[in-house]
Structures are given as structure tokens and as C-alpha cells.
Amino acid sequence: MTLGSSIGNFTRESAAQFLAEFKKVLTASDTILVGLDGCQQPDRVYRAYNDTPKTTEKFYRNGLSHANAILGYEAFKQHEWQIEGLYDDKQNRHQASYVALTSIETRDFSFEKGEKIRLEDAFKYSQVDSDRLWHEAGLVLQMAYGNKTNDYFVHLLSPAVINFPTKPAEFAASPVPTLNDWQQLWAAWDIVTKSMVPREELLNKPIKLRNDLIFYLGHIPTFADIHVTKATAGKPTHPGSYWSIFERGIDPDVDNPEVCHDHSEIPDSWPPLEDILNYQNRVRSRITEKITSGEAFSDRKLGRALWLGYEHEAMHLETFLYMLLQSERVLPPAGQEVPDFKALAAEAEANRVPSKWHKIPASNVKIGLDDPENDLGLDRYFGWDNERPARTVAVKEFEAHSRPISNGEYARFLEVTHQDSLPASWTTSASSAPANGTTNNGNAHAETGVIETASPSWLEGKSVRTVYGLVPLKFALDWPVMASYDELVAFAKWSDGRIPTLEEARSLYKYVQDQQQSTVEKVTSKLISAVNGHLSNEGVQETPPSSHWYPSGAAAVNGSSAKLNPNDTFLDLDDRNIAFRHFHPTPVTGSDHLRGQADLGGLWEWTSTPLAPHEGFKPMDLYPGYTADFFDGKHNVCLGGSWATVPRIALRKSFVNWYQRNYPYVWCTARLVRDVPVSN
Predict the structure, then answer these.
(1) For the chain, N or C: smaller number of CB within 10 Å?
(2) Residue 23 sits in which domain range?
């Protein structure tokens, strides 16, 4: 806690470095208070330091007396020195110096007349300056408390730390998200919305098919407040008027933006940012109280409402980021250095191996989960309406590529087929190049899974959009390609392949998980046999422990305890590029092992299955239009998750996402599959 403006006595660079040391020892739930002088009016600053009672001068002269005390003799005579205070309006800082009024000789020092000893620099911070300071220090502004003239502020800051757990028993410890789950999500949300976008950019819409960015800052707490209020028959958090403008956003038809589902009215102007953030804090306090009181875990209706709010916020965190990626003003994550993309590309190229066809055996696959929307029965994990109910489908044998299509392979496709249009995730210095397109010319065979990358001349001038700025495409050739379904299905046809169905993707994921589990069980069996053998020799019998997991406080409505094993519903994070492990896609060409759910280098996986009601589908009572509003034949199912997807979503075996097939801004990729060749 530094309540004065001592930080202003550092250079701006040193101030950031100093505060960054605190960031290293703060956890996601910690905060720090920092005061900053924000007055940049030269006359006011000059008069403040050159005050009529000479209070500041007396303070400075005390420094000369203190120096004499340390030296043990009167080296600095007060009458030989003048105190000078000036304002540097170029760097917005006050400068104080001791000025020698005559030539001075002491046993230790000598000074010429007029020579200066710099005493103090006091940098003044505008809002832009302070925002830059927090960003460089790796801190996120939560609140700023100002004086009446709004030129001095005490800032409440949190560290820019995102650290989601990796194991289901941690990130899905109970069906209702815990306070720790919420705090991790809030930390991620604040880092993205408060430190990766300039304030003035919040009033813009990087994607014209969406609302202004500021809408999402109001939408998230409003949505949560609506559902908590309904679940508890309570009153809306003030101001209740936010319900009418922030309840639901827009996701119009790409072909005809005039066609759109029901949504909130769009006001002529949005409420002030500070008002929205204050509202957000009040809603967060409401959520915190419901959790810490235990009510969230004893009332399933409220628990479901909080789960809904949590996953809704998590999904819109990704929405906000993919919108921000299209902005020219996106900022890197606070406190992070820009990765060495050139070195990473060289490493990926050195490790590059051909993709491989894997035979996926025929199987019966469970899809979805059972979660009746009522208060009856044992504790269970919640699911959206498109996940319910669980059903089993028979999937035929097929073959699948080990990994998704890479940028390099897609670039080669565009070059060979003479296409000028690029995915929206790419850009070019040529102003005439369109943003995206799906034209398909010709075809090629990719029996080995190897498609050469584009020529250096074709790659020249093309870049991939990232939150760190534009990365030359030649440094991202081994990343998965990020494009619309229509663009990638054209590549699949050209390659004599196709994109898997929802059922095939689930079958593939199950096959990968079964193979991994088989490997683990073999290793574990050997270890247990060795341990049991040793213990048997000592007269002790030992068997493998039960795999059932009992969450604390989990109990059935009827009084019997509930057995919830999160590993039945969720996967381990392992080395997947999700949950902000990286802030960009990562190479997928370094191995020919078969990649499973949420393991496609940080992108969702397209399927060829249109979003449609399945057998037993019923719109959810809490949010009837969540899925049903998009049964228009234009959306396809996506599975897995991206680098910005939280573990509860990316690693839930039943979660379903979707996008319009021609929507260009999606964070989705695709892999090739094919029917099993008929042997002669």
C-alpha cells in the first residue's frame, strides 16, 4: 500500500518495474493500493511546490541538514544553496534541485557556482499515463478514488494473473462454481476488458455484426443479476434499468444483418463506464454473498442460476477477445513480454512431421448428459439444453487426420487454387485484398497428409492477427488455421477429405481418451503390483484405491449422499492450449499422435453437423432461446475449446458450441476425415 505519490518519484519505466515486483508475489485475490498525482497543470504544480509559506522549501532544506549529520560536519551551509523547483511540461514532471549560489569547497566535495544537485523528480500521471503504468507493471485497475478536483487518485489494483486449475477435482469441485472459480474468472475478465483495450475503444465495434465493446461490460453482470434475482424472488441490483438495455446482445444473420433474434433495446448512448463498473462490483458482491453464505449450495435453483451466469460470462470473455482481435488497438496482456515468434517458428519447423491417418473403430458413443431442470434427485453437473439428455449413438468406422489443418497447408491451398481472399484471422498489406472468402478452384490429393506450405513470395506481406499485434504468416505456418466452416470445407474437398460429423468427433475423442486411459492403467497396474508384492511380503494386503470422489457438502435432496466423480464428466487439462496458457494458437505439426478434445492448438473444432434439435431436446426453462433461436439451418456445431476457453467448458465431454458456417471471425479450425477405404 502506497497512499502518497511516491511512485511519481521514479522514472516512468522504473515505476513500472518497481510495481511489477509486487505483482510477482500477489495472488489473484490480492489487491494493492497506489496513490498517484494526476495534476498536469504547470502553474498549479509550480505553485504547489513553491508555496508562499515555503513549507516545501523547508522540507527540501532539511535534506541538507540530514546530509551534514551523516557526514559529521557542516558540508552544506544553508545560505550557500538555493532551492529551485521547475515544471517540465514535456515530460509532465516537477523537478527540484539544490543550486550552488557560490563556488563551494569542502573536504569531500567541490561545486561551481550555479551547479545543481538534482533532488527530486515528481512525475504527474494523466489517466492515459496511469493506464500505461498499470499495463506495463502487470496490474489491473479495479477502482480509482479521486479528490474533488479529480487530479489525485488512490488506485485499487489486482495482479494480472490467470491461473485456472488443471484437474477436474479442482476446476469442477462441485456442480455450482465455487468462489475461487468465480475469482479466477473475474481476474481473467478484468485483465481482458480493463488492460487489453484502451478506454475510448470500448465505444467502438470492431465487428460490425456485434454491439459496441462496452455493451459486454454491462451485459455480463446484468445477465447474472437477472437470473439470481429470479431464482431468489429478490430485487434487481441498482439500477434496475440496466435490465432493459443489457439483458441480451445481437448475433444477426451474416447474409442479412436485418434478420436477428430478440435482443435488448440499443440506447442512443451507453451509460458511463464508471457507472457500469460500479454496477459490476455490486453484482459481484451479491454473487459472493450467495456463495459464502452457503445458499448457493443448498438451493439448487439458485445454484443453477449461478452456474448459468458463470459459464455465460466465460463464453462472452471469448466473444470479447475475438472481437478485440479485429481491432487495430488491441493491447497485449498486461505485464507480459511479446513472445519471440520467429524463434518459436524455427523450433516448430524443425519438429514438423507429416500428419497421419488414424483408423477410428466403430463404437457406441454416449453424447450429452442427464440434467433434468428440477430440484429432484442426486447432485449432478449442470448442462445447457443442447447437452441434454444423454443418448447413445452408433458410429461407423472411419479414418481421421491426427491434427487440424495448419496455416501453412491452407496457405498452399490458396496459392495453388489462385485465391486472393484470406481468412479474417489473417491480414495483408495490400489494401485491395478482401477479408475472407470461400471460392474453391480445382482439387488435390493429400493421401499422406502432407501439403506443402505456400511459396515465400506468396507469404510475403501476409500476417496473422494476435493480441500481440500482427505476426508474419511465415512465423505461424505450424499453427492451426482459424477460419469459417465454408472456407475449411472447401479445403477439405480439395484434399479429397471431409469434416467430421458431431458423432464422429465424439467417437474420436472417446477413442483418444480410451487409449490414454489404457496406457495409464498399464503403468499403474505395474506400480501397484510392485507395491502389493512388497507389502504382501511384509504381511500386509493392499489393493488399488477407489476412484470415486466425494465433493465436500454434496448431498442429495432426499438426504442420501451423492457420489460425484468429476472425471466422469470432465477431462484433465494436461498440455492442451486452453484456459489462457498462451494468448495465441500454438503449433500442431510437431507430432503425428491423434489429438483429442480441446487439443487442437488452441482452437475449437468444426463439425459438419448443423445445429438442430436432437431426440429429447427441450429448450431450457431459464433461457429458452439459448439454442432454439439458432435452429435456422445456417449454424454448425463446434466442439472442444480455444486458448481462451475455461476448463469447465473446454473439458466437459458434453459441451456444444456453434457458429454460422460463413461467419468469418470464429476461433475454429478443422481436421480431415474420410471413410475407410474399401480393400480389394
Answers:
(1) C
(2) 6-128
